[in-house]
Amino acid sequence: MASLALNQQQLLCFSSSRSRAKTRPWLPHKVTLLNSRKKVHIFQVSCSSSTSQSPDANTQTAESCVNLGLSLFSKGRVKDALVQFETALSLDPSPTEAQAALYNKACCHAYRGEGKKAADCLRTALGEYNLKFSTILNDPDLASFRALAEFKELQEEARLGGEDIGYGFRRDLKLISEVQAPFRGVRRFFYVAFCAAAGISTFFTIPRLLSAIKGGDDAPDLWETAGNAAINIGGIIVLVALFFWDNKKEEEQIAQISRDETLSRLPLRLSTNRVVELVQLRDTIRPVILAGSKETVSLAMQKAERFRTELLRRGVLLVPVIWGEGKETQVEKKGFGVSPKAATALPSIGEDFEKRAQSIIAKSKLKAEIRFRAEVVSPAEWERWIRDQQKSEGVTPGEDVYIILRLDGRVRRSGKGMPDWQQIVKELPPMEAFLSKLER
């Protein structure tokens, strides 16, 4: 069955898939246990039936069809696997079986480059069968799907928390937002508490004000009562305004976290022709994204060569993005729209992928592959992310810009035009410096 791994400790994390076919990329998961590890909570759908023999028509169950589909997919028979997953969905499956069938069906469509069909399957699994969006984000088998526009649409729906695909992703984003702004909840509590107190005071002040207006021997002082009412009403207005302002800031922060997550999944090709997602380079390099016309970006790259040694000491990796290149690139069925030869250089899956992400030795090998400059894969998705970032910063989409990322993958700063490399050398600390350790 499908391996639906969710790292509860951190949304932006590496995949924790357990067991998959190792001879082909983008294969669905196969697991038979419910595991839990220290610091990593893993939810997995299990089917225990054997797939060594094809089930007879009279003994077909949703479980056996899913297992048979996985077996066929591991042998490269994607079309036959799709038939089995569709059959499983027609056999009155349990919620767990339906989730597994839909998820693995989406993996098949992703393998075939059918983004819309993959998105439809995942949308149904999210909305009706409690699939966690983090699974889609962290699964290497869906990396090709994450490079498509359909994934961006699905992610935006999830960020807004629509009923159609559930609230799980938005809840995770809100948790990260609360970590980054830990006193927002406290502020809201005081806004509500003081607003309630001012409302109660106003409730008792209004009758006194009316009595003061009418006058009489026992009437309270008009100006004093009016002043108290004005203070209470003014306080309510200010507190309500602050409450809505804080909500707006939270929405902006959630949108930025979502953009950071999208950025972390964008693919790069290193000098060794290996394709990785940006998240795999976290803690290893500081990407500097140069977006603009071919002439502008080429000139900036030439100027960077003069400071190559110092920039490498600071972990800088240049990522050039040429406006308009994304319109010419067609995403192929395998990998990220690269040639079959390049697709074989994609990150391995299953336990090998997880070990590479966590092993110190493997990280050293990955670091050795980085050569000052990387090539973007799926440039249309890079352009879309940069334009979204420009809108959030109030910059006209399509202008020449540069974006410097931190070691932890978040945006450090950005600016119009191309960067001043001498200033960047002064600004960024060397990789071995204490300040660099704080960025990780």
TrEMBL record:
Keyword Transmembrane annotated: yes
SMART domains, sorted: TPR
Pfam families from the UniProt entry: DUF3493
GO cellular component: chloroplast
InterPro entries the record matches: LPA1-like, TPR-like_helical_dom_sf, TPR_rpt
TPR repeats: 62-95
Cross-referenced Gene3D superfamilies: Tetratricopeptide repeat domain
PROSITE patterns: TPR (PS50005)
GO term, biological process aspect, one: photosystem II oxygen evolving complex assembly
Keyword DNA-binding: no
Residues that span the membrane, as ranges: 189-206, 226-245
Keywords of this entry: Membrane, TPR repeat, Transmembrane, Transmembrane helix
PANTHER family (alphabetical): PROTEIN LOW PSII ACCUMULATION 1, CHLOROPLASTIC
Protein name, UniProt field: Protein LOW PSII ACCUMULATION 1, chloroplastic
